[in-house]
Amino acid sequence: MNANSPLISVIVLAAGESKRMGEPKQLLPLGDSTIIEKTVDNYLGCKAAEVILVVGHRSDALISAVSHKPVKTVLNPDFALGMSTSIIAGINQADAALQGIMIALADQPFIDSRTIDHLIQAFNSQKKGIVIPGYKGKRGHPVIFSSKYRGALMDLKGDIGGREIINSHPDDVAVIEVECYGVVADIDTKESYLLENQKFGKLEE
Parallel, antiparallel, or unpaired: how do β-strands 8-14 and 50-55 relate? Predict the structure, then answer.
């Protein structure tokens, strides 16, 4: 990545079973690629120090899909116990000297690298420990946590992300408005997959 950039570890959560979709959504076609490849490419193209992909369900297929990319893959054998286990698995593999932890979702392939860099820049310039993107008043992902929250993230339990930490520290949160709709667009169902296909015109028919 970029040696002169702040040390941000991106943890892309891709271990879920995609129960609402009925099939592994991360492997669905996206242009001449797949959702997971596009998502990973967006983070590899930003100014983060490293990108860590946490896999669980269908791990072999996901690892194979990104095997040619400079991304660190981590297997979470406890993925069925919830999102918190994937966050912990990713942090365990993150650089010990990191300044920030960016939690990203594998089913948000429309967040461009420029928007991600804007959030990293905001993290560096703001005196806040948590940076969240906002789009037209709605909060989205990815979320950057200062390394001071590493312990709190490691203590998470169950199928929750960092919302509990965010709610507990409202005065330490900066919501950064962005122009990228992708920060609030995720793909959970076949209907949402088709909707984003129409909206962005990026998915193959």
Answer: parallel
Strand, helix or coil for residue 205? coil
Q: What is the pLDDT of residues 47-86, one digit of tens each?
A: 999 999 999 999 999 999 999 999 999 999 999 999 999 9
Specify if 137 maps to a domain: yes
| Separation between Cα atoms, residue 106 and residue 84, nearest integer Å | 15
> Residue 60 maps to which CATH number?
3.90.550.10
Chain-centroid distance, C-alpha 98: 16
Report how far residue 2's alpha carbon sits from residue 121's, in angstroms, rounded to the nearest whole number: 14
Report the alpha-carbon distance of residue 72 to residue 67 in Å, rounded.
9
| pTM of the full structure | 0.90
Helices (H), the chain: 35-44, 59-65, 83-92, 113-125, 150-154, 163-168, 190-200
Number of domains the chain contains: 1
Give the span between the Cα atoms of 101 and 188, in whole angstroms: 24
Buried b (16+ CB within 10 A) or exposed e, 112-126: beebbbbbbebbeee
